[in-house]
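Propose amino acids for all 172 sites.
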């Protein structure tokens, strides 16, 4: 109660009071270098991996200029196969041709080779594709084409019906 009063007075505004039961809650910072990719598209992508509770909130620099970073409050989904019991979003990704990075507290190590958590690219022993599961090629060379926004096969980002209307109008 005392912490809540201090926060309401405008102090400690960077902190959040929470219980001990929500170990799957995180503040995720997502950094995209493409300024014209809409918040709606970024949020649609993020929802493939986590439950978005609030956001996006722009993260400005010391001069109040937007840095390309968005902050979200999320809940990780349960995954019994994972060492910590949660499914984690990828640390590096692309939405269409736009590259992005994602980081948060207690984030497990992420392998860019097999696209799985728990180890880095240098220690990766994966011989199967991280996307389709087939042997003989890496995730980067996978012939299976899927939409980087919604994750479905059969179309790419440019044709995705889940893209924000603003971005579609700007392209045409």
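Proposal:
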């Amino acid at each position: 109660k005392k912490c809540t009063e201090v926060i309401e007075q405008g102090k400690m505004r960077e902190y959040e009071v929470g219980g001990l039961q929500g170990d799957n809650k995180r503040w995720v910072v997502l950094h995209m270098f493409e300024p014209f990719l809409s918040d709606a598209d970024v949020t649609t992508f993020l929802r493939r991996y986590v439950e978005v509770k609030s956001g996006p909130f722009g993260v400005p620099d010391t001069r109040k200029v937007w840095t390309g970073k968005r902050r979200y409050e999320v809940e990780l989904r349960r995954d019994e196969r994972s060492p910590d019991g949660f499914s984690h979003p990828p640390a590096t990704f692309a939405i269409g041709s736009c590259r992005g990075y994602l980081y948060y507290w207690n984030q497990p190590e992420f392998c860019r080779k097999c696209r799985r958590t728990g180890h880095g690219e240098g220690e990766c022993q994966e011989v199967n594709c991280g996307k389709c599961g087939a042997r003989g090629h890496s995730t980067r060379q996978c012939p299976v084409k899927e939409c980087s926004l919604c994750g479905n096969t059969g179309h790419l980002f440019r044709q995705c019906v889940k893209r924000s209307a603003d971005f579609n109008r700007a392209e045409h």
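The two ends are 53 Å apart (CA to CA). DSSP finds three helices and six strands in the chain.
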